[in-house]
Amino acid sequence: MKNLYVGNLPHSTTEPELRGLFEAHGAVERVSIVTDRETGRARGFAFVEMTNAAEADKAVAALNGTDLAGRALKINEAKPKTDAPRGGGGGGKRFGGGGGGSRDDYQGHARQPREPRW
Description:
The chain is an alpha+beta fold. It has helices at 15-23, 53-63, and strands at 2-7, 28-35, 42-50, 67-68, 71-72, 74-77.
């Protein structure tokens, strides 16, 4: 059993279409097109689970970089999900530190031009 990541998918790609593409290279266990939780629209990538690891490797070799509806597919072995917290979604600050000031804190003060860093 091998799980493959399929990236750069056209948003119009359907599960049967993707299954057919991979079944030409071996038995497909499951196809999962990832969609946006709020809009339900495809996010442009999917996971294809193939029963035979050797067939999955052949599918990667044959299909990686091939054109589907004008987009070059990016296919490789899916990496297992890590338990590390992900950015976004939770509303937390993405960039650390600093007080909770806003742009209005600088009203009335002219910004000083900065020297380039190089």
